[in-house]
Amino acid sequence: MVSFDHRDAGTPETVWTAAFGERSLPPLADPIEHLIVVAAHPDDETLGAAGLMARTARAGGAVTVIIATDGEGSHPDSPTHTTAGLAAVRRDEATRALTSLSPAIRVRFLGIPDGDTDAHRDEIAAALRAEIESAPQSRSLVVAPWAGDGHRDHRVAGEVADEVCGDLGLPWRTYPIWLWHWGSPADVPWTDLELVELDHELAAAKRRALDLHRSQTRPLSPSPGDEVMLHAGMQQHFERPFEVFIRPHGQPTSLGRSFFDAFYDRNGDDPWGFDTRWYEQRKRAITIATLPRARYRSALELGCSTGALTALLADRCDDVLALDIAEAPLASARRRVGDRDDVRFARAVLPDEWPDGSFDLIVLSEVGYYWSEPDLAAAIVRMRESLTPDGHLVACHWRHPVAEYPLSGDQVHAALRADDRLIRLAHHDETDFLLEVYARPDARSVAAETGLVP
């Protein structure tokens, strides 16, 4: 357990500004239909997740907050407040802060003694489990304090969320608070981080909510024992235009080359039924018909498999680079396409072995759910960076659950929608698959591109 004193100056925010500026971090996927925020003390939820709560509520999602303790131990030597009086103050502050973010936010106070969460794990777990199981929405997310934050109550709350969400198979994230005070960039699990960008409205809402926690952001009185808990330097860490969340360890990893090599060895030349199933033939036809442009200069197909879609793309593109992780389907794809100078095939483990160059068409068809969340996030960044200013990104994915896959098709498309540097030009929604076309924010519609409308 890290030892720190809240009265210390702590790590300057300038250090963190420089550290974040050196990195490109993926966004936390959206939309969220039901957000459940676990807090160890009143104000944890505001410090760590006020922006995410406001964003979720603004989009029409439900938000529930579970606060384990009343935080009555924040000023043990206060000459002006009893523990019971401070507990009442802090409950009122949290209630008003959450209402300021959205009147629709529900809050549940468990009233566990401050500093004694370890003895009340079952109570926290029962409250969280009940909230999860009562939620009818399919797209739920739990966020809780980071277990590595250096505070015992934060550690317990994070560990309980880990256990409950792991048991129920629900995604969860954690948020650090005191890390920004005692830590350095070397203490941050950078590869596990996701950001929630805060626009002007969300940032202002967070500032207003934090300002309502006056027992923590101002001295209780001028007397010794009533000093401020969150001094100005500490508060600066929560004035950033983004919030930071940490993916827990142990989440599914991307399917590797050995998985696909074994799959093709077991199932032959056409394991997906590309050439025999009407479902696949129809889906390819819809995909090709959805392309916004009649002709493309250069296409990148991620996960071409046996080349059934590659052959159709070749008829619409001057140049196609088709990639796959396994050699067996690539051999089939080469036989299918034949000796064409405008189609190239290559074996690559994505997103790590990303090709050079830029493309005005990128096709992500039935691939994204093979990746872990971090790899999907990295792939989205690379796709966006490889897309020409006038380019299109086409994504198509099966929606039914497959036990071996790290993600679902819906999760893949939710991650694409969460990238605010892409806009959706087309959306085809069926029970069995999702098909969407994305482009840069200044992209024009087909009618605008072809001069039918201004």
Which keywords apply here?
454 residues; alpha/beta; seven-stranded mixed β-sheet; five-stranded parallel β-sheet; 14 strands; 19% strand; elongated
Your description of this structure?
- The strands form 3 sheets. A 7-stranded mixed sheet has the order 10-9-8-11-12-14-13, sandwiched between helices. Strands 3-2-1-4-5 form a 5-stranded parallel sheet, with helices on both faces. Strands 6-7 form a two-stranded antiparallel sheet.
- The chain has 16 helices and 14 strands.
- 37% of the residues lie in helices and 19% in strands.
- It is of the alpha/beta class.
- It has helices spanning 13-21, 44-58, 83-101, 121-134, 152-168, 179-182, 200-211, 214-217, 232-236, 257-267, 278-290, 308-314, 327-337, 373-386, 409-417, 446-449; strands spanning 34-39, 62-69, 106-112, 140-145, 172-175, 193-197, 242-246, 299-302, 320-324, 343-347, 359-365, 387-398, 423-429, 433-439.
- The longest helix has 19 residues, at 83-101.
- It starts with 12 loop residues before the first helix and ends in a 5-residue tail after the last helix.
